[in-house]
Amino acid sequence: MHADIVFTGGTVRTGAADVPVDDALAVTDGRITALGAQALAARGPRTTVVDLAGGALLPAFGDGHVHPVMGGLGLAGVPVRDRTSVEEIVEVVRGWAAEHPETEWITGDGFDPWLAPDGRFDARWLDAAVPDRPVVLRTMDHHTAWVNGVALRRAGYTAATPDPAGGEILRRDGSTEPLGTLREFGALGPVLALVPTASHGAQVAALREAAARFAAAGVTWVQDAWVEPHQADVWVTAATTEPGLPVRADLAFVLEPDGWRERVLRFAADRDKVESSAPGLLTARSVKFFADGVIEAGTAALLEPYTDCPHSHGLANWSPQELTAAVTAVDALGFRAHLHAIGDGGVRVALDAIEAAARANGARDRRPVIAHAQLIDPADLARFAALGVIANLQPLWAQPDPLMTELTLPRIGPERGGRQYQIATLLRSGTRLSFGSDWPVTAHEPLRGIATAVTRQTPGGIPEGGWLPEERIDVDTALAAYSAGCAHQAFEEKEWGALRPGMRADLVHLAADPAGTAPGDLAHLPVLGTWLAGRRTHDATIPRSTRSGRR
Questions:
Q1: Is residue 511 predicted with pLDDT exceeding 60?
Q2: Strand segments (E) across 152-218
């Protein structure tokens, strides 16, 4: 039987231990059928032969923690991402507002939280540009918003408003008047609830744009790590109407502390609806929890107080008892817990909840996920492997960029600062690892994350030898975290994540073999093609228009 596609003319990096490298691969009916000489022999008159042109064919990438709908929607609005000063953002807001006089709420997404001293952004700076309409800008980590005076008044925030549960309203020095900076979802919620929701059609379009960007980066599977109830229908529409989607996805329904017992009752029905609507393309097997916030905003939960704020341990979004009860409840329904936990206190309560759920519900292959795990207490490192927890890390964060040097390190000091993003340490402990981008928080291209995991340097090569160089990993390990690691997270390691006969032909064609590429050049290695079960979803020879946005 002749193959549908044969790849030749380069390196086939299989990701398998038995035959790690070959020189040809054949695909029939969406599955890999042969390697090497057998693949070449499968060519026939109707076989499409893909010349790798000296490049490399690899297992396609996954992304174990990402927000496609949110990221796609964030490409619209005021383009504040990558601006280099408060003044520049204010001028961009001023110009955008003048060009869109019909828009009531002016929103933007992705500005850098270190642009104002201590991350304190003043409403009056935005009032000078737009005094008559509400302005809401969210930082790149999405845990902080900068708003103007109109937005504060619309939300009912005054000097008499106390900090809400799970949030912080920053105050002007020497008073209780709101400054214009809101931290965490308890404080953001009343403002965001007033912003008009994008229509179903706009969200579908945003998802399609996001999915196309992932395909262009070599990604064929994503974990949507924050799915509101209505967004399941967005995914189903995009997957079941033309032109379909170029990526598979697992959806994680978000569960928040307030009223969680009522909301969890519908999760099983939502899961069944998603999976019956788009079998083979969509699953809905996860539930997302926020255990804490982020260190740069002082809201990640820490075991010991913040260095720059000795009275604060950060914000725990759940009490330990309620988080344990909620994780146990979703685990009993067969869902996988997917927990955002950044501080060592947040990581500990996440591990405690997972351990309690397993004890209550009995042994099974659950593969819970703790995402980010920026700071782990040494006593908790071995618990990841012991509990079968997947550490989903964002390798692009493991560098001394301004977020790290201007905000994070001053908040936690040198000792804790020196044990962040312990990628190599977790691997040595036996922890299963997957990588993700958290896009739109940071860039979605896996090759950029791989470059950082290997070098632990900024794009400019700082510092020489890497930041916390003992946590660097090699290229093959980083590639595996983005492929086999994500496949394991998806419970699909027998289907994709390596190039073996019988597995799905989820493939990425790179312009050169990453194993032979200088570490500093990995981030810029061109992705020439992507295939989802043998169907080409990206072809670099065909240009596509892209909208503005941080890449």
A1: yes
A2: 168-171, 178-183
Query: Model pTM?
Result: 0.94
Question: Cβ neighbours of residue 366 under 8 Å, at least 6 residues apart?
Answer: 331, 336, 337, 354, 357, 358, 388
Q: Each residue of 327-344: pLDDT tens digit?
A: 999 999 999 999 999 999
C-alpha dist (Å) from residue 113 to 92, 110, 137, 294, 342? 17, 9, 11, 12, 17
Q: CA 46, CA 401: separation in Å to the nearest integer? A: 51
Angle at 231 between CA 228 and CA 236, to 5 degrees: 145
Strand boundaries in 219-281, DSSP class E: 219-227, 248-254
Our measurement of the distance from residue 546's CA atom to the centroid of its chain's CA atoms, rounded to an integer in Å, reads 20
Q: What is the pLDDT of residue 229?
A: 84
The residues near 54 (Cβ < 8 Å, ≥ 6 apart) are: 9, 10, 512
User: Helix, strand, coil shares of the chain as percentages rounded to 5?
Assistant: 35, 25, 40
474: tokens are 């090699």
Cis omega (within 30 of 0) for bond into 463:
yes
Per residue in 103-158, pLDDT tens? 999 999 999 999 999 999 999 999 999 999 999 999 988 899 999 999 999 999 99
- Neighbouring CB atoms inside 10 A of 133's CB total 16
Whole-number Å distance between alpha carbons of 275 and 292: 30
SS (H, E, C) 452-488: HHHHCCCCCCCCCCCCCHHHCCCHHHHHHHHCHHHHH
Interatomic CA distance for residues 522 and 514, integer angstroms: 7
Specify the 3-state DSSP secondary structure of 492.
Answer: coil
